[in-house]
Design goal:
This protein has a three-stranded antiparallel β-sheet with strand order 3-4-5, with helices on both faces. Strands 6-7-8 form a three-stranded antiparallel β-sheet, with no helix packed on it. It has a two-stranded antiparallel ribbon with strand order 1-2. Helices cover 39% and strands 22% of the residues. It has seven helices and eight strands, in the order E-E-H-E-E-E-H-H-H-H-E-E-E-H-H.
């Protein structure tokens, strides 16, 4: 018995295009061959992602081919490969470089519409998953976990996860506002006596942390650790000393 997985793409004019994603054969009736295997599921998701991304990129480049002001076709200078990491594998895209239309003045003579559309080479979903798991485990364990459950290739390395976490942290630090006056003129001011990152507002001169207005403001431990201790108390009925003994091993793993 064979199963064929196909994708039907319908454009704006209503034309349909059918492309085959995978062919799965099942000859034996065993428990191991019941349903899809993890490798087959990853292969289908990777192929489906490639088809969807290729179609979206082709439509975007077709719209950028003509000048929005006069409608003339822009001349192509050349192409270069562009690697875009997604939660379902790394996509290698062909990114053309086009000449600007002479009807308008530009500082640069050429530009890459695909590179301008994708300033970051990683999808938001993959960045979210990498940052979320990296906050709970090491970069190496995060990389292994993502490779086990997602169709990722060898290009996803712990160094890539570390850079993603640092970029997200820098973006969060840039979005911090003063809790009193709401000013964006905020700079880092070291650590407070509990070890949390402190900030100082240059307008009202107030120092604060990210937990200053939360119920966890006066606690030394992180909110995640406090929530974990509360869950252990209600689930296992452990005393404070027993929770400390249990957390000495489990929290290191986390």
């Amino acid at each position: 018995m064979q199963f064929s997985v196909q994708v039907v793409a319908v454009d704006a004019a209503g034309a349909e295009r059918i492309r085959e994603v995978a062919v799965i054969g099942r000859d034996t009736r065993q428990l191991e061959t019941l349903g899809l295997s993890l490798a087959e599921g990853k292969a289908i998701l990777r192929s489906l992602q490639t088809l969807v991304v290729e179609q979206q990129v082709a439509d975007h480049l077709e719209r950028e081919r003509r000048c929005p002001a006069c409608g003339k076709a822009r001349r192509r200078k050349g192409t270069h490969p562009l690697h875009f990491r997604t939660a379902f594998g790394t996509q290698t895209l062909t990114s053309p470089r086009l000449h600007h239309c002479p009807c308008q003045g530009h500082q640069q003579r050429t530009f890459s519409p695909l590179a301008a559309r994708l300033p970051e080479r990683t999808s938001p979903e993959l960045t979210y998953l990498a940052t979320k798991w990296a906050s709970l485990a090491s970069y190496g364990l995060t990389t292994k976990l993502l490779r086990d459950v997602l169709p990722l290739d060898e290009g996803v390395q712990p160094e890539m996860v570390r850079r993603q976490v640092q970029r997200v942290a820098a973006r969060i630090d840039g979005e911090v506002a003063c809790l009193r006056c709401g000013s964006q003129a905020v700079r880092k001011a070291g650590l407070d006596r509990k070890g949390a990152h402190a900030y100082r507002c240059w307008d009202c001169r107030r120092c604060f942390t990210a937990r200053s207005t939360t119920p966890f403001a006066d606690y030394r431990f992180l909110p995640a650790i406090i929530a974990l201790a509360v869950r252990w108390y209600w689930r296992y009925r452990l005393s404070c000393n027993r929770q400390g003994d249990r957390g000495s091993d489990d929290l290191l793993v986390i």
